[in-house]
Design goal:
This protein is α+β, with helices and mostly antiparallel strands. The protein folds into four domains: 49 residues; 149 residues, Beta-Lactamase, CATH 3.30.450; 61 residues, Helix Hairpins (Orthogonal Bundle); 146 residues, Heat Shock Protein 90 (2-Layer Sandwich). It is built from twelve helices and twelve strands. The protein has a five-stranded antiparallel beta sheet, sandwiched between helices. A five-stranded mixed beta sheet has the order 7-9-10-12-11, covered by helices on one side. A hairpin with a 2-residue loop joins strand 4 and strand 5. Helix 7 packs antiparallel against helix 8 and helix 8 packs across helix 12. The longest helix is centred in the middle third of the chain and has 86 residues. The N terminus and C terminus are likely disordered.
Length: 493
């Protein structure tokens, strides 16, 4: 219409009177129509912009409220800026908790090189801009200077807006959007819209982050519940095992105490009631049985007291420097009368080192191991005790030619109350505490004990004792390991 009016109302030549007046009225009306048309066009553009902005907010809100996936939300925001708000290049960045470092990002329209270049300027340009009071930062190629102008040229942008995303005044990220050919001039209404847009995106991302944190917390809680449940199941199993062990212990001790006591009482009653009728030879046999059963009862009580003292930390030690070969030969001499055709042999190098130890405790260990070896040896067999010096200290080996121990049982035999199920043990009842006490005593000497064996090939019990026990002779207490002056000894075979 504007063109029509301009074309038809060309200024004529000189007009006079009523005709000139009519022309002026018509020209005035045409100008008013042009002005009205311009205002309608501008109002229509503003309305279309508001519709686009409303649609963008609605689309963004509808979609991001349907998911808690941060990556999907960021992708949606970036695409919405491009499709709904006519930006050729857009991006969104999620910052770390301190708001100082980009953590996740998504972009549309930028090349990977352009976007990487943009993020490189976070510390020098974008970060400081986000810390300003303005909620919308606008940079245009026409007015920017210095580093901003260079950045816009590199990104091939005519205009760039940066929208900080804040949640409860905390900076959590930012949105960037650029146009390549249009120099933006933002009205107050447009600034308010972009603030609303960034606020909605901020809420969505923070909610997603909180949901993710809640999910992780629930997962961690579930794992902890499962762990605690597993621990409770294990604790209950241990309690059941302990209850079973207690019942077995009471049954075992009751049996082990009752057996010698029954024998002792029986022979005592026999001697008491039939004293005059019993011959001297039978009396000697009865007294021998009484002595054996009394020794058995004494051993049982001693083992129980020893294990109690060890577990309560009340075991006393009398430390002295001892020659292990001498003690071993003395013990073998005591056992030679009970060997029953089993050859007992000791093999130590002449310069085998002395060790700091409690002589009675080591004798108890050697006696227990050697008595066990005798019990499982056949007449004509051999038990050999030998020793040598190595890097660990002094090593001792007690070997026999008995039935051997299965590999699966070699650690169990050092457990309290554990006994191998075989004919020898069934004929020789016991508490199953002997080897457990041996290991505890050797451990308290700073050493270790283990067994190497194969069924049918005999067993080798090995003891390693340190040479650096810093203990004063005749002192008592639990040992502690300290470096001692180095001494050199020739190694034995």
């Amino acid at each position: 219409m504007r063109r029509f009016i301009k074309r038809k109302l060309k200024k004529p030549g000189r007009l006079h009177g009523p005709l000139k007046k009519a022309y002026d009225e018509l020209d005035k009306t045409a100008r008013a129509l042009i002005q009205t048309d311009l205002k309608l066009h501008q109002a229509n553009e503003r309305l279309n912009l508001q519709i686009s902005q409303g649609h963008a907010l609605h689309r963004l809100g509808t979609f991001i409220n349907s998911t808690f996936d941060i990556e999907i939300i960021m992708q949606t925001v970036s695409e919405s800026m491009a499709k709904d708000l006519d930006f050729e290049k857009t991006g969104i960045v999620f910052l770390d908790k301190k708001g100082q470092k980009p953590m996740q990002s998504c972009y549309t329209g930028f090349s990977s090189a352009e976007y990487a270049h943009l993020l490189e300027h976070f510390g020098s340009l974008i970060g400081p801009a986000l810390l300003q009071e303005e909620e919308v930062c606008l940079q245009t190629a026409s007015y920017a200077s210095g580093i901003w102008a260079k950045l816009l040229r590199t990104l091939s942008l005519a205009s760039l807006i940066i929208l900080p995303m804040r949640f409860k005044s905390r900076l959590i990220g930012f949105i960037v959007a650029g146009r390549t050919h249009i120099t933006l001039r933002l009205s107050e209404a447009e600034r308010r819209f972009y603030c609303m847009y960034a606020s909605q995106a901020s809420s969505a991302i923070e909610n997603a982050r909180l949901y993710e944190a809640l999910g992780q917390a629930n997962l961690t809680l579930e794992e902890k519940v499962q762990e605690r449940t597993h621990n409770l199941i294990e604790a209950n199993e241990r309690l059941r095992d302990l209850d079973t062990a207690k019942s077995n212990f009471i049954s075992l001790i009751s049996h082990e105490l009752r057996t010698p006591l029954t024998a002792i009482k029986g022979f005592v009653m026999m001697l008491f009631q039939h004293d005059k009728e019993i011959s001297g030879e039978k009396r000697k046999i009865y007294l021998s049985v009484l002595n054996q059963e009394t020794d058995r009862l004494t051993r049982l009580i001693t083992e129980l007291l020893d294990i109690s003292r060890i577990e309560s930390g009340r075991m006393e030690f009398m430390w002295e420097s001892i020659s292990i070969p001498d003690y071993v030969r003395k013990i073998l001499g005591k056992l030679s009368l009970e060997a029953g055709g089993v050859d007992l042999e000791a093999d130590f190098p002449e310069n085998f080192p002395s060790v700091m130890a409690d002589a009675d405790k080591l004798e108890q260990v050697f006696m227990n191991l050697l008595v066990n070896a005798l019990r499982f040896s056949q007449p004509g067999g051999k038990i050999k005790v030998r020793g040598w010096r190595d890097r660990a200290g002094a090593t001792l080996e007690i070997s026999d030619q008995g039935m051997g121990i299965p590999f699966s049982e070699q650690e169990k035999i050092f457990d309290k109350f554990y006994r191998l199920d075989n004919d020898v043990n069934r004929k020789n009842p016991g508490t199953g505490l002997g080897l457990s006490i041996c290991r505890a005593l050797i451990n308290l000497h700073g050493g270790r004990i283990w067994v190497e064996s194969e069924p049918g090939q005999g067993s080798r019990f090995l003891i390693s004792l340190p040479l650096n026990l810093d203990k004063t002779a005749n002192s008592s207490g639990v040992p502690s390991l300290h470096p001692a002056p180095t001494q050199r000894y020739a190694e034995g075979a």
